[in-house]
């Protein structure tokens, strides 16, 4: 059951404290030493007109909010059933400050993103074996395969060092969630708006001692002395020829360059980067042709939607750009009719669900909202919040399109970033705007800023950290504008604190507490009944089913109602049938 959906209220009033300002300011300046830590808000130099719902001044309002939430929680019944389908969303770099700032970007504090309305929440500790602050490769390994390993490495044990060219693949590599799903007979799919060979998506189908080995030219550059037959297989090749990749029913993302040889231009007239002269898109078609399946490759939105609507293809590969996909705001700017623009994340998710839904055996779909991270890396806060918005929409679409009775949706992030949400901005202030003016250098600063990154050069005059730039005239509406950053770095870094885990659907109650990140896929596997790897039978025997059903007490079934009972009956029936 979803918590009450909360909407932005149109009823917003404003008032001014102008009459009291001069008095308090005077008092404050005499006692500046008293509370530097929590300056009197009325002494603020910037925007001192708070905007909020008048009811917030009435204590009963807050008591009612609390009562309603308490009621929601006491009404909540754990759905202990197993999920037929599971959709796992990762917002790359979607830190908790990013989520909080996105609420403000979409309206105010009151906005609740689709996944924030999920009833269960936990936190994931994201460190990897050799780093306090992780990258997307070791975290993907953790949340997809259930094992923590080293920074920069995909599904290879921590005993192997990064970029090692020759190692015992058999002994150190492992597979995860999508393989478990495939072994249990479920359909599988993969969606991202980054290169499909980038660390996060690659974590679902590839093993590599180096996340940068996206095509053979990158393997060759690192493994110059390794004989060809012992060279590790590049990530793009693993997607096309690997055990997991071959079975993916739908693959949607970007990064064509790693599938095309140098000299071959893609649909956007961008050169391929492979050095082995192999066209892996053709190879993909051939692999599935040989498997006797109808396979289709698409490279634009129209053909994607056509293929997904018709449901006449068994396998669908869609690549929509040479490197990462366009940012959401860049897609909006494309000077062509909407139908001819690049597909957005939510449109790709919709197409993937069309390919997977309605199957008897169920499916597991892995989705990455990958550009939240890349926008943060360049200190472009507005761009990142917009990507988080699109991620939220994709999850809303998935939750609306699927049934809460049979589809588990888990949303998390791989790691945090250095985005900070701070100052003491007044209610109603633009979260992407200026928070206040510093009492020390008398210059304005923004509510959002970063601990490090390229924004440094837009923060200090000539890089002199004692001399800030006056940002008054910065165009903070322009998504290319970099936000302030304290330490100069060519790319802003990830952050090391925990990230959220949000869950809805069957067995969603398992996703609670402060967890090691590698626990997540084990919970999903258990919830989706695909954990034969852990000794749980993928197809429960009729007796097990009976046990399952009787352990659900009547008191639990009654309030959920007849509809659930009949769904359960259908489910039991199907499993008994399948076992025969
Ligand atoms: C928050 O949402 C609730 C429920 O829709 C609404 O009643 C209330 O006015 C909103 N408050 C603000 C500050 O917008
Ligand atoms: C593609 O890249 C290769 C190698 O970098 C270069 O030699 C070739 O001229 C490029 N082809 C085109 C059409 O740009
Ligand atoms: Zn990153």
UniProtKB/TrEMBL annotation:
The active site lies at 136 (phosphoserine intermediate)
Q: Which Pfam families match?
A: Alk_phosphatase
InterPro entries recorded: Alkaline_phosphatase, Alkaline_phosphatase_AS, Alkaline_phosphatase_core_sf
Q: Extract the ranges annotated as region (Disordered).
A: 28-47, 202-230
EC number(s) in its UniProt entry? 3.1.3.1
Q: Which cofactors does this gene product need?
A: Mg(2+); Zn(2+)
Identify its protein family.
Answer: Belongs to the alkaline phosphatase family.
What name does this protein carry?
Alkaline phosphatase
Q: Which organism is it from?
A: Anopheles atroparvus
Source lineage: Eukaryota, Metazoa, Ecdysozoa, Arthropoda, Hexapoda
